[in-house]
Specification:
Number of domains: 1
Largest sheet: 5 strands, parallel
Number of strands: 5
Helix content: 40-55%
Strand order of the largest sheet: 3-2-1-4-5
Structural class: alpha/beta
CATH topology: Rossmann fold
Radius of gyration: 16 Å
Strand content: 15-25%
Distance between the termini: 41 Å
Order of helices and strands: HEHEHHEHEHEH
Amino acid sequence: MWSPRNKLLNWSDLLVVRESHRAAGRVVVWTNGTFDLLHPGHVSSLQQARSLGDVLVVGLNSDRSVKAYKGPTRPILNEAERAAMLAALECVDYVIVFDEDTPAESLARLRPEVHCKGAEYAPPHGRPVPERTVVETYGGRIEYLPLVPGLSTTELLNRIQATS
């Protein structure tokens, strides 16, 4: 019987799966984020990322890394809850939790052909992509996904507070 847990892998299992996909000539796509309070904007981005290859691996920021950059009140849902929601999505093939502040180390280990970022990182005026050098060094490419206007976890939290 299928279970979303089958998609939640540790690094040793993910690297074995990655090699099997590489051997079969499949394009592995990576995207990452917090995915706190999963919303239609997240789902749209994940579906777009999946359309860029054969396999989608989602890197999920650990609770520690989320707190480090979003503050002590985040995440709303813990990493196990967020991972379970992502794994339940049809477009997601695998989920891995990472603890680093950027996905650079994860990308260096996995070496996906495509690394997806949100449009807010797109050149020429986008935010810096700290992992760019890692991706370029192993020969991968970065794709920028359009955002759904008005949909973000922060916006959702503002809506919830306004109705309380």
